[in-house]
Amino acid sequence: MEERSFGRSPVDQAQAFQCSSDQFDSGITEKPNTGFIDSCFPDHVCQLKKALYGLKQAPRAWFHRLSTFLQRLGFVCSQADTSLFVYQHGSCTIYLLAYVDDLILTGTDSKTIQRLIVALNKEFAIKDLGRLSYFLGLEVTHDETGLFLSQAKYAHDVLTRAKMLDAKPVATPLSSTTVLSSKGDLFHDPTSYRSLVGALQYLTITRPDLSYAVNQVSQFLHAPTVDHFQAVKRILRYVKGTILYGLSFRHSSKPSLIGYSDADWARCLETRRSTYGYSIFLGGNLVSWSAKKQPTASRSSCESEYRAMANTAAEIVWVTHLLRELHVLPPDRPTILCDNRSALFLSQNPVSHKRAKHIDLDYHFVRELVSSGKLYTRYVPSKLQLADIFTKSLPRPLFEHFRRNLGVGPPLSRLRGGITDISKK
Question: Which helix H or strand E contains 257, and what residues bound it?
C-alpha cells in the first residue's frame, strides 16, 4: 500500500458574506473599525461563514463537514479513533487519517485512491504532497522490509533550543542510581524547564526508550529543582548521541497481539506509589507503550502488578477494536506476559482471595476477559520482560538489550552495487 499526504489550500480556509446588522445585538454601542466599513453598505457588517482557525467552534464545524463528505463517499468513521476513516468495498480497503486539515491516505487499490483524490479536490482546495515522507514532525522512510519512523529534525531543533548541540553524549537517558525527589534548590527558570520537558514528551512518539525518563522529569513541572534540570540535560545528552534513532516496522507473515506488563512497587519514595508500564506488539512491531505512575498506593507488589495488568488489558481491548475496524484483526487471542506469578494466579483462578477484595473492579475485569477466552495471560522471566524499560532506570547493557528488542535503533543503510574481485590483478 502507498501512503499519501495532503494539505488544504489557504484559499479555502475562510469565507465571509454580508448580512444586515439588525441580526446582531442592538446593545453593542462600540463603533466598528473604520477599515471594515463598506461605502456601498455602511450599515452592514461581515458575518463569518466558515473558518478553520481562530474560533472555538471552528474545529468542530470543520470536522463535521469533512466527516459528512467522507461518509457520503462510503467511508465509516472509526469508533476507536474518531480521526480515522475506513472504506471497505470488496477487496478494496482505504484508510484516511485526518489531523485538522492534514490528511494521510493509503489503501490497496491505486485507482480508487486516485478517484478519491479527485473527489476531495472538487470539494476542497487540497494540495497533493505525494508519498508520505514527513507528517507533523515525523519523518517516514520506506524500504523493502517496511517503514522507519524518526524525529531527527525535531530532535535537532530541541537540542538547538537548549543550546546542547555540542554536548557530550551518554549511553542511557538516566543513571541507574538516579532517584528524583521534590527536595533541593529550586531551578531559576521553571518556564524553560517546562518547555524542554514538553518538547521531550512529543519526542517519545517515536522514541519509547525515552518514556520512563521523560515521565520522571514530568512529575516536577510545578516546582522543578536544579537536580531535575540536570536530569533533563542528561536526557538531552542521550538524545544527542541517538539523534538518528527511530522506530522500525517490519512485515510479518503471522501477526499476533502480545503485551508485556510490568510494575515497580513503591518506586516513588515520597508518595510510595508504584510505576507501571506496558508495551504491546503486533506481529513483532511495537504499536503501543506507556510509562506512568499509578494513581493510588498498592499494598503489595502483587497488587501493583495486577493493576498494571488491568491497564494493559484495557489498552489491548482498545487495540483489538481498532484492528477489527481496520479489518486486520489477528485470529489468535491476545496475550499478556507478566513476570509476577501471584498476579497471574489472580487473573486465572476464579476463587476470590482476601488480597484482591479491595481491587474488585480490576480483578473482575481481567479475570472475565481470561475466562471468556478473549485474553490469555502467561509468565515471562524478568530478563525477558520488555516492559521493564518503562518502570525503572536500567544499567547500560540491559537498557540497550531492551531498546533493541523494542525496535528502536538507527536507520538501516543499504549499499547497492556490484561486487568486484580485487584479489587478482
Answer: strand 257-264
Whether 227 contacts 184, CB under 8 Å:
yes
Whose grid coordinates read 481496520? Answer: 326
Which residues lie below 8 Å from residue 337, measured CB to CB, with a gap of 6+? 258, 259, 260, 261, 377, 378, 379, 380, 385
pTM, to two decimals: 0.82
CA distances from 177 to 174, 180, 209, 317, 392 (A): 8, 10, 17, 36, 10
Tell me the Ramachandran region of residue 357: left when phi exceeds 0, alpha when psi lies from -120 to 50, beta otherwise.
alpha
Closest Cα to residue 206, out of 134, 128, 102, 105? 134
pLDDT tens digits, residue range 117-166? 999 988 888 888 888 888 888 999 988 888 999 999 999 999 999 999 99
CA 342 to chain centre: 31
3-state secondary structure of 327: coil
Cross-strand bridge partners of residue 49: none
Return the bridge partners of 291, or none.
Answer: 277
Task: Give ∠ CA 351-357-361 in degrees, rounded to 5.
Answer: 90
CA distance 117 to 109: 13
**4-39 tens-digit pLDDT:** 666 654 434 333 333 333 333 434 344 445 566 778
CA–CA separation, 227 vs 178, rounded Å? Answer: 10
